[in-house]
Amino acid sequence: MRCAHEVCGELILVMDFKSLLSTHKVDELFRASLGSFVASSSGKYCFCPLPDCPSVYQVAGDGDPMRPFSCGACSEATCTRCHLEYHPLSSCEQYKEFKRYPEFSLKEYIKGKEEDVK
Predict the structure, then answer these.
(1) What pLDDT does residue 34 have?
(2) In whole numbers, what is the pLDDT of the chain averaged over residues?
(3) Exposed, middle or buried: residue 69 (CB in 10 Å: 0-12, 13-18, 19+)?
(4) Helix (H, G, I), strand (E, B), or coil: what is residue 57?
(5) Do residues 88 and 100 lie in contact, with contact meaning Cβ atoms separated by under 8 Å?
(6) Averaged over 61-88, what is the pLDDT?
(7) Are strands 68-70 and 45-47 parallel, antiparallel or unpaired?
(8) Are the CB atoms for 35 and 26 separated by under 8 Å?
């Protein structure tokens, strides 16, 4: 951002905002700026899914391996592909099914163990 005075045009730095605005207004400006960045990222970045958490993470691409985002603000681990709780032992599709139909997860577990029990 640059100074709007017609003969100036100098860059406005963060320390300029801090010296001119209250702490509350600077925080408000940063939150709005971050929100604008996420909204204009075409889905490449998302906010942490916990309510009121200000952290942002990079969304995993289609060919990227599944990895967690460990939030430094709230300590929540989020899957960067499906945006649910991190689930290292199941695919995103399986985990969504387990969340939607909890009894399905028990049936899947039993089905996998039937071969072990004789």
Answers:
(1) 93
(2) 87
(3) buried
(4) strand
(5) no
(6) 92
(7) unpaired
(8) no
Instruction: Find where tokens 């929100």 sit.
Output: 35
Q: Are 79 and 87 in contact (CB under 8 A)?
A: yes
Q: Confidence band (pLDDT; 50, 70, 90) for 114?
A: low
Neighbour tally for 102: CB within 10 Å: 9
Cβ-proximal residues to 79 (8 Å cutoff; 6+ apart), any chain: 66, 68, 69, 85, 86, 87, 92, 95
Find the Cα–Cα–Cα–Cα dihedral 97, 98, 104, 109, rounded to 10°: 130
By residue count, the chain amounts to 118
Amino acid at 20: L
- For residue 48, which of 27, 19, 28, 77 has the smallest C-alpha distance? 77
